Amino acid sequence: MSAGTSQYRIDGPSPSVSAEALEEIGRRTFIEAFGHLYSASDLEKFLTEKHSAVAYSAVLNDPASAVWVAYGDAGDLVGYLTAGPCALPVDNMPANAGELIRFYITKQSRGAGLGGRMLERALSWLHEHFDHVYLSVYSENIKAQRLYERHGFEKIQKYFFMVGEHADPEFIMKRMTPVD
Q1: How far apart are CA 60 and CA 67, in angstroms?
Q2: Is 145 part of any domain?
């Protein structure tokens, strides 16, 4: 499917998707991207806390949050993105700050422009609802950092993101200037 983006359909910011479907794609894409970094117990603890149907149900039912999902040409769920109020440990966080919280696409759906299309939709929504926009990215995920930089984000601080008992070095990025 990397030939073009027309094969993908993006729904959101309020898609008709179940919390169970988000749990499945959330777990699958997180394991695909980062599962090799963690012990089985740390990974399972994190997935149970952050990628459960209960956790996604809370997001879907939160009027201050939004979800976008991407479907492949066969109708299969190939990616998702969540956004809402910022919960990152930003130094001197300003009022009315939003966050690009989760953004994952299956490996086979990367490289076709889908990520950029999803990100643009989410950023438009975030700027309609928040005065400042942040995200967190794994320090070794250079491709994601480049995507975010192309969309106006800059690294502003480091912190550790916990996956179970494992501390991942991450960057907090802030969108400095909206890019149209």
Answers
A1: 7
A2: yes
Q: Which tokens go with 34?
A: 């980062």
**Cα 25 versus chain centre, distance:** 12
**Following CA atoms 40, 41, 45, 50 in sequence, which dihedral angle do they give, to the nearest 10 degrees?**
-20
In contact, 1 and 8? CB cutoff 8 Å = yes
What pLDDT digit, counting tens, does each position of 36-84 carry? 999 999 999 999 999 999 999 999 999 999 999 999 988 899 999 999 9
Residue 103's beta-bridge partner residues? 81
What is the mean pLDDT of the segment spanning 121-133?
96
The CA-CA-CA angle for residues 12, 15, 18, to 5°, reads 145
For 113, the domain range is 5-175
The confidence score (pLDDT) of residue 111 equals 82
**H helices of 61-167, where?**
114-129, 142-150
Strand order in the sheet with 153-163: 9-11, 66-71, 77-85, 97-105, 132-138, 166-175, 153-163
CATH of the domain at 36: 3.40.630.30
